[in-house]
Amino acid sequence: MAELWSAISAALPVTEAEFPLDFSEKVEPCVVDVLKRCRQQLYTGSGRWRQNAQIILDFSWEKLNTGTWRDVDKEWCLYSYGCLFKVAALCRDDASPATVQEVILTCDLGLLMGAAIMDNILQTIVRILQNEIGKRHSNEKDPSEGVSAKKMKVDSVSVPVVKQALAVPRILCPSLESFMKDYLDPQKPVILGGIIDHWPAFKNHPWSIEYLQTVAGCQTTC
Fold first, then answer.
1. What residue range is the signal peptide (predicted)?
2. Residues 6+ apart with CB under 8 A from 97
3. What's the CA gap between 15 and 18, in Å, rounded?
4. Which tens digit of pLDDT belongs to each residue from 75-109?
5. How far is CA 124 from CA 44, 57, 65, 107, 129, in A?
6. What's the CA gap between 13 and 9, in Å, rounded?
7. CA nearest 129: which of 111, 102, 161?
């Protein structure tokens, strides 16, 4: 976990003085005080760090969900600051996979409900965590496991018997004219093959569950 925390802390401002907490008078002074306390604890590593972050999250959540969304003042982007402080506390304290997933979920909420703060630092942290998950998956994956699971799946598939007269024809890359004449206008079913082989998802970076987890992480599952 030390390596992960090192990567995340490197994305943060170097000193407490460089960490921005500038809000208008619309944000109550008591809230700003808690934010400053969280900032101090971030750099000292002491105090009720996670609890204070949760106070910010709970308070700003109420503000975000009071009235209509268009009436929410942009100053309540401080929800993202609460998420950032919570993420930092979690990453420093625990190394479990469940915690990493919770951290990504917290970042997602900060991006959705708050705002892009400090050069979109939450998105930067998500990328760091996705790399960590990718490393863990590659270390834990058993090559033989995937082969045997695939074989079991193939062996268990039952192929239905379809009469040739009722089978839907399959054609490869038809011209637009022939497709319209032979199938579209008479409204005949057909299976088209080879028409998306040039897509980047097939050639440059074939899509798979592992690939989607790498580029999007929990954002695809929450």
1. none
2. 133, 136
3. 5
4. 777 899 999 999 998 888 766 778 888 888 898 88
5. 22, 20, 26, 10, 9
6. 8
7. 102
The rounded distance, in Å, linking the Cα atoms of 35 and 9 is: 18
More confidently predicted of 31 and 114 = 31
192: which strand partners? 171
Distance CA 65, CA 213 (A): 30
Find tokens 């839907």 and name the residue.
168
Longest dimension (CA), the chain: 78
Contact (Cβ atoms closer than 8 angstroms) between residue 52 and residue 34? yes
CA distance 38 to 48: 8
Distance, in Å, from the CA atom of 85 to the CA atom of 42, rounded to the nearest integer, reads 7
The rounded radius of gyration (Å) of the Cα atoms in the chain is: 26
Indicate the length of the chain as a whole number: 222
Could you list the beta-strand ranges (E) of 81-220.
170-172, 191-193
Give whole-number Cα distances, 69 to 25, 34, 64, 74, 112, in Å. 20, 25, 7, 10, 13
Going by C-alpha positions, the residue among 117, 112, 90 that lies closest to residue 101 is 90
Total-model pTM: 0.61
Encode pLDDT of 9-45 as tens digits.
Answer: 899 999 999 999 888 888 889 999 999 999 999 998 8
- Look up residue 108 and give its two tokens: 């997602």
Helix (H, G, I), strand (E, B) or coil at 65: coil
Question: Would strands 191-193 and 170-172 be described as parallel, antiparallel, or unpaired?
Answer: parallel
Q: Which amino acid is at 127?
A: R
